[in-house]
Amino acid sequence: MKQLVSGNEAIFQGAIRAGATYFAGYPITPASEILQQAAARAEEDPGFRFLQAEDEIAAAIATISASLAGAKSFTATSGPGFSLMQEALGWGHAVEAPCIFFNSMRVGPSTGMPTQPAQSDLLQIKGGSAGDYYPIAFYPNSVEESFRLMVTAFNAAEESLSPVIVLADALLSHLYEMADLDAIEVVVAPRTREPLGRGKRLFTGTAHDRMGNVKTNDPEAYRDWLNDLKERHLQVADKYPLFEYFPGKDPDTLLIAFGITSRIVAPLKERFSIFRPIRIYPVLEKELEKVTQPYRHIIVIEGNDGQYASWAECAISRKVMKVPCLGGGFKLKWIQSQIEERLKGR
Amino acid sequence: MIDRSYKELLKLKRFPHTWCPGCGIGAVLKNVAISLRELGWNDRNTTVVSGIGCSGRMAGYMNLDAVHTPHGRALTAAEAIKTVRPDLNVVVLSGDGDLGAIGGNHLLHTSRRNPNITVFCNDNEIYGLTGGQAGPTTPKGTKTITSPRGEIFQPLRLGRILTTQAPYFYARTTVYHLNHFKACIREALFWKGFSFVDIISDCIELNGRRLGFKTAHQMFKWFDERFHIVEGVRDHLKDDELGIAKREVEAEVKAEMEVEKEPKVLIEGLKLFTLEELKHFDGTDGKPIYIGYKGKVYDISTSPLFQGEKRMRCHIAGKDLTRDIEIAPHGEDLVYHFPMVGKLKVKAEAEK
């Protein structure tokens, strides 16, 4: 039966459908509703455990540790909390723990505008923790898709043995839409790693070889291990080349938008072509190259000052134009006027 | 025949280990392994978790599923593992810097939530792995490479922090008092709830040598001088006591009036010292250091300025220093920081 569901509810229900049994979090607008749902769930389902941690650092560490212990686990936060979780994100890649980090973005930096939506944590997916790691990240744009992508993210986490990031923005988190979540059919991947207490393994953030032996002065062993990790992550990412593409009347201009901005610019799809990346990281290089080829003008419309635009430029080796919607200001009219301005005289 | 079956719990293939000769961590690792073996804990029912630092390497040498967390996060990880897998015994092996400084917030809150885990803290009062910087538990006055004139702040007293909210289990022991050490490990493993063993350990290479010790054994003797074992179960331990403080339920909070009365009763029962008797307590041969001030006797053994010496500039231990302190550049407040242990007989008589 269709009913009104919010983005945060769909995210939580998606995790439950994927088999999640552990949640750790810390209250933060606009992701607190997920923590509240987890608390309620823990009350009625003894198989579901939750921790309201003392900070996001603890929440993220608990999520990864619970995953090592054998639970499908996830955490939810917003930008400032995601900054605190960066340490754990790096650790999660080092110990190869499948779990989900959900980040509902708000205007930053720092505390910023807690109730206003933004899309400004893209660089934090990849660049926040020390060293090289290859995270996979998805970005839905509707309530129903939040549910689906949460399951997909859990599957990708199990396959890649790493933390997978699901992004949303404050607007999507609090957006209510009609959806029938029970009717959605999904495929759920099983657990791939043996839980703790089944061997003599060492899960360490220190550099180690494939067997888990600490190797702090061995470049060969490190390269072997990191290349393995990279290859596996990119392979799994290739399984989910998710995007949407609507060709429009204007043969010269392509708009790139994702998340809530793609919903806001949707009325322009009669006129302009629109490309919406769903797997936000690793960047859809092949797909972007193919789609953008016939267009003279590429305009990236996003809730930050050109974070995805810089990735897109790298991917297609071409200049793109930017329409940064800053400070939570997502207004179609304003975006439209900005597009006109950029196209003027070209 | 000595039972060496505990070696099954150690990854001997990875030996020789990374620690310096004379380090106390070896004793911690071995005795924990012995106790786990005695209890029949093995790789099917036990997980060890550790943080970062010299002591953080302990988990890697245990022949069990081990989790080596980022710096300071061992307690949170252990709590989450215990939550998901209540059937596993979870043991945390870490150090004072990891648990007390960077993981201080987690220490407060994990102990508050009281998960059934056991924490062994190798408390060597220094950051050893990074070269001997002052740590949270470094005693005031200790010279380290980041406190060249002596540590200026009070140390973090884990024992006081961890015994504020019942239920709690806090044991303090040293690697030198071996039988006491083993007993504490066993008691802690049996405790249902959050148990914390503060193991005073030596770091001879990066702390001891700078303090003037030549061998680890000299540091052990120093532990013997600084601490003494107290028998029986206590509610709290003093800073120089080794023992177990535990409590299962919160004591009723006393009314404020009652609390105020207490010190008066204490003063009544104070011992009377003559000036002759006072002379005896001058800090030599491990005796405490007492001084007289305005008719009262104070125990200033914990003063970093007096430690191990008979005198500090013009102040002489075991004497009535009323006049000295009145003309000293510092005020009398300094004296009141120390515990009062008695009254001076001369003054007491003169008052009558």
Notable features of this structure?
A: 346 residues, alpha/beta, Rossmann fold, 2 domains, eight-stranded mixed sheet, five-stranded mixed sheet, B: 352 residues, Flavocytochrome B2, Chain A, domain 1, four-stranded mixed sheet, 14 strands, 34% helix
Overview of this structure, please?
The complex is a heterodimer of chains A (346) and B (352). By secondary structure, chain A is of the alpha/beta class. Chain A has 2 domains: 3-239, Thiamin diphosphate (ThDP)-binding fold, Pyr/PP domains (Rossmann fold); 245-343, Rossmann fold, CATH 3.40.50. In chain A, 40% of the residues lie in helices and 21% in strands. In chain A, strands 2, 3, 4, 5, 6, 7, 8 and 14 form an 8-stranded mixed β-sheet that branches. Chain A has a 5-stranded mixed β-sheet with strand order 11-13-12-15-16, sandwiched between helices. In chain A, strand 15 (297-302), helix 11 (307-316) and strand 16 (321-324) form a beta-alpha-beta unit. Chain A is globular and about 65 Å long. The termini of chain A are far apart. The mean pLDDT of chain A is 95. Chain B is of the alpha/beta class. Chain B has 2 domains: 5-247, Thiamin diphosphate (ThDP)-binding fold, Pyr/PP domains (Rossmann fold, 3-Layer(aba) Sandwich), CATH 3.40.50.970; 256-351, Roll (Flavocytochrome B2, Chain A, domain 1). Helix content of chain B is 34%, strand content 20%. Chain B is built from 14 helices and 14 strands. Chain B has helices at 25-39, 58-61, 74-84, 96-102, 104-113, 158-162, 178-190, 204-211, 216-226, 256-268, 275-280, 322-327, 333-336, 345-351; strands spanning 46-50, 65-68, 89-95, 117-123, 168-174, 195-200, 228-234, 241-247, 271-273, 290-293, 296-299, 311-312, 315-316, 340-344. In chain B, helix 1 (25-39) packs across helix 7 (178-190) and helix 4 (96-102) crosses helix 5. The longest helix of chain B has 15 residues, at 25-39. The chains are: A alpha/beta (346), B alpha/beta (352). The interface between A and B is large, with 40 and 35 residues.
